[in-house]
Write a structure and sequence with these properties.
Blueprint: E1 5-6, E2 9-10, E3 35-43, E4 50-59, H1 67-86, E5 90-92, E6 97-100
Antiparallel strand pairs: 1-2, 3-4, 5-6
Length: about 100
C-alpha cells in the first residue's frame, strides 16, 4: 500500500509544500498540467452578450494511453474555463477566493 495512505486517510507527502497560513501561497499539488488556450469571441457592447467563435487548446500531455479520455479532459477544461470567464465571479485578495457566485447556485 502506498505510504501516503494510512488508516484510510490521505497524508500529504513531504515534497508538497503546504500553504503559508499568512500569505496562502504554497505548492497545492504534486502534479501540474502545461497548456494554453485561446478564444476568439464577439461581444455585443450594448447588451454584454458573448458569442464564442473559436477555441484553440494545446496541452503537453506526454504519451497518450487513451485518446478519447485525453480529449475529454482537455475539452472539459475548456468548458470550465468558459464558465469561469463568462458566468462565475471570483473575488481574490492575496490568496484563495473569498466570495463566489457558485455559492449561490
Amino acid at each position: 500500500m502506498d505510504s501516503h495512505y494510512r488508516s484510510g486517510k490521505y497524508v500529504v507527502p513531504d515534497y508538497v509544500v503546504p500553504a503559508d497560513p499568512e500569505t496562502k501561497y504554497g505548492n497545492y499539488s504534486i502534479g501540474y498540467s502545461f497548456g494554453v488556450q485561446g478564444v476568439e469571441l464577439e461581444v455585443d457592447t450594448a447588451t454584454g452578450q458573448i458569442n464564442v467563435l473559436n477555441i484553440w487548446a494545446a496541452h503537453d500531455v506526454g504519451k497518450v494511453m487513451h485518446p478519447k479520455m485525453c480529449e475529454g479532459q482537455v475539452e472539459g477544461g475548456v468548458v470550465q474555463a468558459i464558465g469561469y470567464a463568462t458566468s462565475e465571479k471570483y473575488i481574490w485578495d492575496k490568496g484563495p477566493y473569498f466570495k463566489s457566485r457558485l455559492q449561490r447556485l
